[in-house]
Amino acid sequence: VGELIFVGLGLAGTKDLTLRALDAVRHARTVFAEFYTSHLVGATHSQLERELDKRIVLLARDEVESGAERILDAAAQHRTAFVTAGDPMTATTHQDLRIRALRRGIPVRIVHGVSIQVAAAGAAGLHSYKFGRTTTLVFPQPNFNPASPYETVRDNRARGLHTLVLLDLRADEGRYMSAAQGIEVLLGHEQQRRESVVTPDTELVALARVGADDQRVVWGPAKRLREADLGPPLHCLIVPGELHFSEREALELVAAPRV
Amino acid sequence: VGELIFVGLGLAGTKDLTLRALDAVRHARTVFAEFYTSHLVGATHSQLERELDKRIVLLARDEVESGAERILDAAAQHRTAFVTAGDPMTATTHQDLRIRALRRGIPVRIVHGVSIQVAAAGAAGLHSYKFGRTTTLVFPQPNFNPASPYETVRDNRARGLHTLVLLDLRADEGRYMSAAQGIEVLLGHEQQRRESVVTPDTELVALARVGADDQRVVWGPAKRLREADLGPPLHCLIVPGELHFSEREALELVAAPRV
User: What is the dihedral of CA B153, B155, B161, B164, to 10 degrees?
Assistant: First the structure.
């Protein structure tokens, strides 16, 4: 009987791999990967194959979302690893895949990875227990520009809480939302809703390539931050709630030079 | 000039170490560790020293909290690693240490680790973006039994959100709050406040040793869950908000047998 092992690769390069992850991948007969719900900063498919000393089958978006029969058929037969950036269980599609595997009687194991959901707070010097619900901004489209992230930030701020704002990525199209684009989206919602949630004067934190050697953390009012060029993806934003004085001090030290 | 590197060891044993963490520790001249704000499941000090091939200086609680001069003096001179379970930046005391180091002009690097704050949601099959603020229950004392965790759960539930409830540990006294004890504390607050936040019939998820090979996930009403023996620490709780049907299905499959 086979096994399906969900393996998180962490944030950046091949150095965030845990020993448990290496072990799981090396003992798997087939290794699948998907990098459209998440993105491994600074590592290519072939670098990953070299580091793991293993051939990795890269899956397209629809191969995971619709049925995933290819993965499940392999996992029903032999030990199969499914690798993804960050933690493997933060994506809803992966939880769905796990449910389908368990329903088919395939044993499932999870190898957790370093996740932006915890790392971003720490990188910025903010207290992780002061974060409310995380939200994700999607690329606005003519008929689809949901205001739910704006509402999440608003509800968190009403309780004094910080919000981690993740940014859309469409790896198959080579599109990664930048911090500047994310700020424009939030300011666009502000113009429509006018609830003073994210105005041009709201102080935000923008982060790029968290966990990588060239990580950047920038802090300042939205109107100045949207001009900042933070370099290659991934980016994310934090909308602070009430800042404790020690958080403010950490930001002064960590996010320098302030924009 | 020296350097202070904060290194997260992850959740369980020595296999959650990332390649980046191994590298950082092996190239450090001095390695300090503290295991009172967090606890590495299933690994002793000497196992860790063996795996890392390095002597590790174990610090007492007051050595980190009050001044931490010993760590800073070492880091001012040479490359110094400070290792801790989970992610190194989720503890406020570690953020404070980072601030003190930066104020003294000591370069700081962070090696993130796998954290319970993300792993618990994934292990239970719940959607991480549906979690509100995390809270921590402390051992009640005659004059100190704060109701703030109860209020955090209440505020999250009012928005339909799940709450991760971390449990107190006093490693220096060998005391680790069990899931059953945590439930008693929450039910005690309920008896005082009577806001129907966590009643004996509220369905909770209890988790033990997340990420370890003998991880357990149990789901059921508080009155039955408080009878469950989940074995050695660490434990934690999740108080679900509104469960999506796929989350309910995941719990049925993952947390079986249901208590």
Answer: -30
In chain A, residues with a C-beta closer than 8 Å to the C-beta of B113 are 114
pTM tops 0.90: yes
Distance CA B90, CA B108 (A): 16
Contacts of B12 (CB under 8 A, 6+ apart): B40, B41, B42, B43, B209, B210, B211, B212, B213
The answer, yes or no, to whether the previous bond of A234 is cis (omega within 30 of 0) is yes
Residues of chain B positioned with their CB less than 8 A from the CB of A19? 14-17, 19, 22
- Give the three-class secondary structure for B219: strand
| Residue A235: its H or E element | strand A235-239
Cβ density class B176-195: b for 16+ within 10 Å, e for less: bbbbbbbbebbbebbeeeee
The answer to whether the Cβ–Cβ distance between B114 and A112 falls below 8 Å is yes
Contact B122 A136 (CB under 8 A): no
Which two structure tokens, joined as six digits, stand for A96? 């769905």
Nearest to A99 among B127, B129, B246 (CB): B246
Q: Which residues of B touch A135 (CB under 8 A)?
A: 129
User: What residues does A170 pair with on adjacent strands?
Assistant: A175
Cβ separation A112–B129 shorter than 8 A = no
Q: Are the beta carbons of B92 and A14 separated by less than 8 Å?
A: no
When CB atoms are compared, the residue of A16, A89, A95 closest to B18 is A16
What is the predicted pLDDT for the residue at A67? 65
Distance from CA of A155 to the nearest CA of B (A): 9
Nearest CA in chain A to B213: A109
CB contact under 8 A, A14 and B19: yes
Q: Find out whether A106 and A75 touch, Cβ atoms under 8 Å.
A: yes
Q: What are A145's two structure tokens?
A: 């520009």
Model confidence over B142-201: pLDDT tens digits? Answer: 888 899 999 999 999 999 999 999 999 988 888 999 999 999 999 999 999 999 999 999
What is the ipTM for the molecules in this complex? 0.95
> Does the distance separating the beta carbons of A117 and B114 come in below 8 Å?
no
Rounded to 5 degrees, φ, ψ at A6 are: -85, 125
Question: Which amino acid belongs to residue B203?
Answer: E
- Angle among Cα B141, B161, A137 to the nearest 5 degrees reads 130
Check if the beta carbon of residue A221 is closer than 8 Å to that of residue A203: yes
CB spacing of A131 vs B133 below 8 angstroms: yes
Pull the structure tokens for residue B100: 């003190």
Check residue A256 and give its pLDDT.
63
Mean pLDDT of A29-58: 88
